[in-house]
Amino acid sequence: MDDKRLETMIGKLLRAGVLFSAAVVTVGGIVYLALNHAARVSFRTFVAGGPEIRTVSGIAQAAVHLNSQGLMQAGLVLLILTPVARVAMAVAGFALERDRLYTIVSLIVLLILAFSLLRAV
Hints:
Elements: H1 3-36, H2 56-64, H3 68-96, H4 100-120
Helix pairs in contact: 1-3, 2-3, 3-4
């Protein structure tokens, strides 16, 4: 694998991740509007989503059941995971190129990302 091919693959991964997450959020928005188009909205107080969409497992379950808020949250989680997947692909690509320095640096970045995401949950 050469640098040009790795850059192309990473670019396609980023594009696909962003487009897929946007599609999931859009579907969630359409479902939300279809089910709640006549509901009155009060902007005086903020009402957060229920506890079922505050964890990754809850978001996944809500999205599988086509819950609109779950779908929108799932799209945002996918958007957050897109750059993480990019770094993971960079680790694999640099390892295939046998570039030890960039493999180690990318692996350290991936571990920092994973640690920070897991600590946030």
